[in-house]
């Protein structure tokens, strides 16, 4: 009888040790998973978590303190684009470099979903495209833009995009780019960009 108790006790100890080991392994796997998450991954998870499938608005603080309410729609390699939530700027789209984000200000309901697992590498082309490519598309389309940098804002049309900077022809926001409307030029380093707004 005593042997039965001894074996039962040993068996329960072994079971407990195995459960402890499995729990420690699960904790370590979770720590490694969280260690691989990027800010882009967390924004993407928040955007995917909206039950209405319209995408959730996320408050983003840019360098310099500007707060932007954004409904992320497309994620590139180093940028995110979407629509802003400000009613005065209805239908305004923007491109935000990930490097320009000082902080993401999630709601309590967005915090936990932002930690969800990232899907395996996607075949979507947009997720491999860098910021200069997107800006070159705006340049090619001759889209009037508002370029916000850490130093201020400028309205105009992007004339060209190089590796690390863009040329902006300055003109009034309500006028198309014509030589007669251009009142100056700016060469803007991409590292200074906070957001590019357009319609």
UniProtKB/TrEMBL annotation:
It comes from the Bacteria. This is Uncharacterized protein.
């Amino acid at each position: 009888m005593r042997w039965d108790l001894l074996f039962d006790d040993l068996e329960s100890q072994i079971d407990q040790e195995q459960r402890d080991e499995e729990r420690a392994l699960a904790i370590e796997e979770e720590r490694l998973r969280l260690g691989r998450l990027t800010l882009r991954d967390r924004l993407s998870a928040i955007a995917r978590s909206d039950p209405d499938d319209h995408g959730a608005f996320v408050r983003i603080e840019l360098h310099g303190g500007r707060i932007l309410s954004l409904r992320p729609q497309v994620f590139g390699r180093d940028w995110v684009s979407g629509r802003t939530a400000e009613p005065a700027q209805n239908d305004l789209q923007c491109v935000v470099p990930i490097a320009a984000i000082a902080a993401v200000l999630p709601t309590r309901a967005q915090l936990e979903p932002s930690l969800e697992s990232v899907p395996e590498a996607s075949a979507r082309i947009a997720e491999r495209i860098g910021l200069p490519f997107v800006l070159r598309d705006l340049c090619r389309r001759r889209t009037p833009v508002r370029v916000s940098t850490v130093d201020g804002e400028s309205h105009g049309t992007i004339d060209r995009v190089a590796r690390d900077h863009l040329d902006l022809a300055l003109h009034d926001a309500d006028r198309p780019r014509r030589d007669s409307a251009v009142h100056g030029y700016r060469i803007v380093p991409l590292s200074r960009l906070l957001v590019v707004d357009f319609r």
